[in-house]
Specification:
Elements: H1 6-14, H2 25-42, E1 46-49, E2 52-55, H3 64-74, H4 82-87, H5 93-102, E3 106-113, E4 117-124, H6 127-142, H7 149-160, H8 164-167, H9 174-184, H10 203-244
Length: about 260
Amino acid sequence: MSNVTIGTDLLLLAIDPHSGKVRVAQKIGYALRGSELVELAIRGRVDVTEGRIRVLDRATTGDRLLDNAMISIARRNRGPRVNPWVRAAGGLRFDYLAAMEQAGVVGSEKRKILGVVPVTRWRVQDATSRASVRERLDRVAYGEGPVEPRDRALASLVVACDLAPQIHAPEVEDAAFVRLYRIANGAPTPRTIAARHREPDDALDEAVVAVERATDRAIAVSTNSAVDAATSATTQAAHHAAHDGGHGGGGHGGGGGHGGH
């Protein structure tokens, strides 16, 4: 793990600061997989067309987990369908927690319940990092201004994996809760990517500005499609997990048995 991603943001929110448990543990893996789809779309590596993920650029992202995600997408000539691709990664939290621990973002403590059952409890090493992510989520929940693509994705996936009720209690924060759900379900929001307003100086500059604006629009369309697809797939996978007891699949390479995540 070389940088902060939507996936790491999700886990910072999911780790209970009091118990050290990972909340919605059986569903968070699907949200992490959805976050990878959005990250790759934002970086111009993939797009979503007619329910399939298509690789646009196979260059490394510099992030091992995202690169693994892209490899898993590229294995299919036509590209995998979004829903089964997301559903195949219920245990991805193990990979992320291990990477975050290695990077010093979180720490772990091994315990035994009743002196027998091994569990792992987690702590966020820098409380300001969690507070920063929570502040971004609150801006989406309470604000009325522009919503950046990453923040829309974060809010949508928090809702999709049922983490939202544990962060914003609906009986206390009705307005925030409703706005999060509206955004997760594709409600229109102010522009998420700032437009380029500079005036062209000459014909050549005008052409450059036109290309820049077209690129912004293309990225916005691709990213919004990825957010919508990732949110829908995560929601379906989370509901499926709830109905069948939450036995999700492994991570990219099948993360190992960290009890009590």
